[in-house]
Amino acid sequence: xxxxxxxxxxxxxxxxxxxxxxxxxxxxxxxxxxxxxxxxxxxxxxxxxxxxxxxxxxxxxxxxxxxxxxxxxxxxxxxxxxxxxxxxxxxxxxxxxxxxxxxxxxxxxxxxxxxxxxxxxxxxxxxxxxxxxxxxxxxxxxxxxxxxxxxxxxxxxxxxxxxx
Length: 164
Prior knowledge:
It is a single chain. The protein is α/β, with parallel strands linked by helices. It has one domain (10-150): P-loop containing nucleotide triphosphate hydrolases (Rossmann fold, 3-Layer(aba) Sandwich). Helices cover 36% and strands 18% of the residues. The protein is built from five helices and five strands. Strands 2-1-3-4-5 form a five-stranded parallel beta sheet, sandwiched between helices. Helix 1 packs across helix 5. The protein is globular.
């Protein structure tokens, strides 16, 4: 007698960002990547059975498994976003999407935004992937989703950020 297969697990990814951020566009891109199986490289076939739900500004009662903080591509992460990242990273696997108006930036400016954002997050004790997500980087949503799925699958328990 064989056991019935377990139902597919639903993974919830919270996409967080300022009211005027590109959070809805990033959520849409992540949903599209999840729906097309572009994240299949993220891991074993068991992940292919997972249904991925992407929510903009998910509340704690939505019980997200991971989070994406959206930072505007034309300026590095703001201090209030760093504080949000500290709080979220203490509880969930997370990543940062640099998005919105990226196509208006030169490669040098975009690189600087990513570098400064990464440095500010590390200085605050937040260590997570930072990825540019826009239509000029078509594989970026799948790469971001893959890193989040890998962290969730690994049971990554974030370390509490250090004090200032």
